[in-house]
Structure formats: structure tokens, C-alpha cells
């Protein structure tokens, strides 16, 4: 349902007159601040950044881009390491002022603004004893995270963030402000569940919420020398993990500079049962850190915040691992001692339970059958370390190639080659192209892991196929 179509006075102005939010151009106070992203390696200079005060400002940005034929980028939390939230010489619809949160406890639903972050939603939903699957670092933008899929602690119990997405308000390439759901524009709704920022600027998102408050959560850390035993114990636990258990294996350098190996957990079932399930990990030998304890979910959502350093320089790679063989584990382990900097890390996330029970074609996000996702995090602060950090991530990724599936997770990668975007979506790519061609035939929204529109005429009712 488009409810702005008739208000032509808001539309097709081709300039930014009447925008309520700040309009920032190079040289203006606030411009440099507004073009900073999580990844400090990104140094792009848009011609104009509009700090949108509401959906109509977003409409004006889209109209401006279309009428003036300039590139448009959409920015929410600014965490995308590829830096697609900015561009050089175009316009940025910066949604960061749109961080409102509304909870409907009666319907167990939340509505958030297109620029909201997890730190805006989680504590408020917890006031009602409710939660949904969210990012594991609280400053991550809800929109970018969810549109790419959204893997979080609760996904094995309640599905990915995109599985919990009920509706979106979106400004499409023609400047229409529309609410989409499974009933209204179901093809577009399907595409928004994993297809990234390809289909328009999402100005609000509505989620299902679930009752979750007390968890058994925290981190177990051992010396790096124990990485082989810890990785194997993690694999065994992960392959048999109940839906209530979210867990990640990581090789890190801890805050006191010690190289460590960790397993971080979030258990949302009965606490005693959780202690029993975690016993094999604790029996590996005394951890140097064991802070697994009863924890409110909102605190789980900030327990890894210290790992996400805003402004650090980042180069990431990732891949899904269908089978964690001995050879795959050896390759991972051989890279732990080559990590280029203390901020760099290796994360091995489990993918199981509810997230993997959704059929691959049910949402644009297709990766429903792989038990592990390896996330190679090259991160450092000194620009002089760029070459070394990038080389480590790339080499590690190449070495893992024989053990990866051909899929990628768009939220953890920077897929520059078109062939990699296509394989990231597997069989869903074809339908994504159809939806893209229908809603954005000129590829206005291309500052993303881009789904290219096709040239063929598109039937009116895509959802009938
Ligand atoms: C420290 C850290 C921790 C992370 N943890 C996780 C995790 O636990 N699980 C996980 O799955 N991912 C995680 N990520 C990855 C994260 O989900 C992606 O980087 C995501 O793109 C971030 O969204 P954002 O809104 O913050 O980013 P932005 O950089 O603002 O946006 C990224 C892209 O998303 C699109 N986009 C954003 N907002 C909108 C909108 N309103 N409308 C249309 N398109 C939009 C645009 O294409 C934009 O270029 C993490 C990233 C970081 C840096």
C-alpha cells in the first residue's frame, strides 16, 4: 500500500528544499563526523549527506538521486565493513536520527526506525520480558543487519532476524513510501528478508518478539596452546546443540594482551540443564576465564561490545563450512598464530536449530543447511598495517577454500565480483533479480552487495510463480 503516491507536493522536487534534517556538504561543520563509519579504512566523500529526520526526508533523498542521476547510499548503524553506506560524489540518506522504538507487548511486536541500533531496542523490549534475534555487538544497525539476514544468539531458537521481520516501511526507487508485508507486496517482503539494501531505503521495521529474560551466558577462555582440544570439544557440542544454545568458538587476544581461545555461549533454557550441557567444555581443563553465569538477555547483548572498536581498520572474509573435518580444523588452527594484530580474531559461529529449519527458498537469505560460519576478522588501528592485515585475511580465506561451500554471508563480506554475489544467494538469485527488476529497474540502489536488474520484461504478479 503506497500512502505517499498522492502527495505530489512532497515529490519530484529534484532539490533538497524542505528537508527537515541537517543537509551536510563538504566543508560544513559535522560533514566529516557524518562520514565516519565503523571501518576506519573507508574514506568516501559524498557530495551531500542528509541526516533524515523522518520518512519524507528519505523520499526527498531518493527523488533527488533519481532526478539528478547521482548515486544514493543508505546508512543506518554504519557497521557495514564494505563501506557501502557512503559513496563518492553522490547523496547519502543517513537514517541515524531515526532511532525510535515502539513495543506492542499485547501482540509481542516491536517497530523500530530505519536508523535504530540494537542498543535502542534490546533494553526497551526487555522491560516487557521480550526479545528478538539481534546483533551480538549492540551498536550494530538493526536495518543493515536484518536486511542481510541477521545472525544472533537467539537464531537457533527463534530464527534469524529476517525470519522475525513482519513488515517494513520502505521508499522505493520511484520515491513511493510503501508498507510491505506478507500480505502487501509479498515478493518485495521476501526479498527484504536477506536481499540487503537492494530494494529501497527501509524507514521502519516491525519484528516478532519472544519471551526471554534469564539466560546462562558468558565466556570461557583457555590459553591459545589449548586451541586444538577446545576446537574439537566445541565442534562436538555444536553438532549436537539444542535450540536453546547459541555458541561461538574464537581465537582472540584478550584485553590484557594474552593470546586466548574462547567459547562464548548464550543458553536460554533451564539454567541447571544449561550447566549440564556446558560441563564437557569446563572439563577440558581449568579455563583462565570462566564468567558464564545467569545473565539477563539485555546484558548478553552487550557482553561482546568491547570486541567492536569503532574506527578500527577492518578487512573481513567469511564462508560457510558444510563439514568441519580434521583438515578444515587444522587449517583454522594454523592461522591462529599468524593473526596480524591484537584486534584481529577468528570466529566460528554455529548455525543450527530454527534458523536452519526454514526452507532455503522461503526467504531471500538462503544459507539454511550449513552448521558453521567462519568469520575471518582482520582488524588493526595503524594504517601502516593495512597490507599485512589484508594479506592475512585473504590468504586464510584462500586456504579455507576447499572446506567452504560456494555461499557467502553478505553481512560479513565485501562481495565485489558479481559472480560471488550470485553464488551467495544460490537458487534464490533468480527471483531476487526479478524483484529487483520490478522495483529498481535502473539499479538506483547499487551501493550494496549488488543484485543487478535484468533487462527482460517482468510479469506483474511475481508471487504467483
Ligand atoms: C562489530 C560488528 C559486529 C557485528 N555482529 C554481527 C552479528 O552478530 N551478526 C550478523 O549477522 N552481523 C554482524 N555484523 C555485520 C552487520 O550485520 C553488517 O555489517 C550490517 O550491514 C550492519 O548494518 P548497519 O546498519 O550497522 O550498517 P550500515 O553500514 O549503515 O549499512 C550497511 C548496508 O546495509 C544497507 N542498509 C542499511 N540500512 C538500510 C536501510 N534502512 N534501508 C536500506 N538499506 C539499508 C545498505 O546497503 C548499507 O550499505 C557485525 C558488524 C560489526 C561491525
Can you give keywords for this protein?
Vanillyl-alcohol Oxidase, Chain A, domain 3; globular; alpha+beta; Uridine Diphospho-n-acetylenolpyruvylglucosamine Reductase, domain 2; Uridine Diphospho-n-acetylenolpyruvylglucosamine Reductase, domain 3; 14 helices; binds flavin-adenine dinucleotide
Characterization of this structure:
- This protein has 465 residues and is of the alpha+beta class.
- The protein has three domains: 18-94, 2-Layer Sandwich (Uridine Diphospho-n-acetylenolpyruvylglucosamine Reductase, domain 2), CATH 3.30.43.10; 101-211, Uridine Diphospho-n-acetylenolpyruvylglucosamine Reductase, domain 3 (2-Layer Sandwich), CATH 3.30.465.10; 214-412, Vanillyl-alcohol Oxidase, Chain A, domain 3.
- 26% of the residues lie in helices and 23% in strands.
- The protein has helices at 31-34, 55-68, 118-126, 142-147, 155-158, 186-192, 227-239, 271-282, 297-300, 326-336, 354-357, 386-400, 418-425, 428-439; strands at residues 22-24, 48-51, 72-75, 91-94, 101-104, 109-113, 130-131, 165-171, 177-181, 201-208, 210-211, 214-223, 245-253, 259-267, 289-290, 293-296, 313-321, 345-350, 372-380.
- The strands form four sheets. Strands 12, 13, 14, 15, 16, 17, 18 and 19 form an eight-stranded antiparallel sheet that branches.
- Helix 7 runs antiparallel to helix 8 (271-282).
- Residues 456-465 have low confidence and may be disordered.
- Bound molecules: flavin-adenine dinucleotide.
- Residues 38, 73-80, 84-85, 95, 114, 135-137, 140-141, 143-145, 147-148, 150-152, 196-197, 201-202, 308, 411, 447-448 line the site of flavin-adenine dinucleotide (FAD).
- Flavin-adenine dinucleotide binds next to strand 3, helix 4 and strand 10.
